[in-house]
Write a structure and sequence with these properties.
heterodimer, A: Heat Shock Protein 90, five-stranded mixed β-sheet, 7 strands, B: alpha/beta, Rossmann fold, five-stranded parallel β-sheet, globular
């Protein structure tokens, strides 16, 4: 296959995988939002039930009203947080390169992936250091690379109950250490590992799986702090 | 006639509990739990006429719970609860013996009607 064809195939794969990633995240978020709406809907219904009761002479229970109000408020807050995160995620595709606060970006992708991990009985935990770590990179590809690393752990969900994510400065660059008990075996995850390599190449970085001794395994994403050689697209509203 | 015994199984605790409360206000003997595993241990202690089960749950998901229920307690009817994107799984559940499915959010009267039909007391 010629270099040109290889480049085209790689571009096509990146586009396809990017859409699949976007779809997985937005489908999961829409499910969560739907749950928040369902809970608000039921508590609104419960209020109506109570009002009907008062019309039939049943006294209104103030504590119950307060509880309903708290539950609705909590779900509205949950929905707002989900929408804020979804909005930042959607805009992460606006620019191929921008300055990133790594802990903030990782906080978003951890939050966005938490439900999908939870369905596999796995919890994701971000452990940022005291100092902020900043870099200039492609935020969408970076989140996608971290998500693929999560998948390499949750595809072996039996083994992984907790996966930690640690951003750290590393000399002139940065590292993201994603650690759990054991990643899925290489022979069962060839395509995902290949995608992770492609993404890290796009980010001018590299991915490595290393043993952490008794603590398990880690996928380490290493990146420079510099600007990837790419053309910046205009940012949409 | 004794009330219809309903077990609501949804990992969204606030949803299963409020639905149970609204069903109790309508004369059902209803309770809510938040996992398939808890539902299985609950049915060891009490016979339920109808289980309303969320399709997507951590651990023992709705379809796996349905399969276990069909083996252990074939007299209980199962109504699956699903989000918009999971109707395919719910349809698979019907092929495996679920009574029907409902898409969240659901109107309480629709849920009541479905539970009554499932329990054979429309």
């Amino acid at each position: 296959m010629s270099d040109q064809n290889q480049e085209r195939d790689r571009g096509r794969r990146l586009k396809q995988e990017g859409l699949a990633f976007f779809g997985a995240i937005t489908a999961s978020l829409s499910h969560e939002l739907n749950n928040a709406f369902a809970i608000i809907n039921e508590h609104g219904g419960l209020l109506q039930d109570l009002l009907l009761g008062t019309q039939q002479g049943v006294p209104m229970d103030d504590r119950k009203l307060q509880r309903i109000s708290r539950k609705i408020g909590a779900q509205v807050e949950r929905g707002n947080a989900l929408i804020r995160r979804l909005n930042r995620f959607a805009h992460s595709a606006d620019s191929e390169s921008r300055e990133i606060d790594l802990a903030e970006l990782l906080g978003d992708i951890v939050g966005l992936s938490q439900r999908l991990a939870g369905l596999r009985m796995m919890q994701l935990e971000l452990r940022p250091g005291p100092e902020p770590v900043r870099l200039v990179s492609n935020p969408f590809f970076l989140q996608q690379a971290v998500f693929v690393a999560f998948q390499l752990f949750w595809d072996n969900a039996e083994a992984n109950r907790l996966v930690t994510v640690v951003p750290e400065a590393s000399g002139p660059g940065v590292r993201i250490v994603i650690a759990g008990a054991r990643t899925v075996a290489p022979e069962a995850s060839g395509e995902k590992r290949e995608l992770l390599s492609i993404l890290m190449e796009e980010l001018r970085g590299e991915a490595e799986t290393r043993s952490e001794g008794a603590a398990g395994q880690a996928i380490v994403l290493t990146l420079s702090r510099g600007v990837p050689a790419s053309v910046e697209r205009p940012v949409s509203a | 006639m004794p009330p219809i015994r309903v077990l609501l199984v949804d990992d969204e605790e606030d949803l299963s509990l409020v639905l149970a409360e609204r069903l109790q206000m309508r004369g059902f003997d209803a309770e809510g739990v938040t996992s398939g595993e808890t539902a299985l241990s609950r049915i060891e202690q009490k016979q339920f006429d109808v289980l309303v089960v969320d399709v997507k749950m951590p651990g023992l998901g709705g379809l796996n719970l349905l399969r276990k229920l069909r083996q252990r307690n074939p007299r209980s009817q199962v109504i699956l609860f699903t989000g918009h994107g999971s109707t395919q799984e719910a349809e698979e559940g019907i092929r495996e013996g679920a009574f029907d499915y409902l898409v969240k959010p659901v109107e309480i009267e629709e849920l009541v009607k479905k539970i009554q039909q499932a329990a054979g007391r429309p």
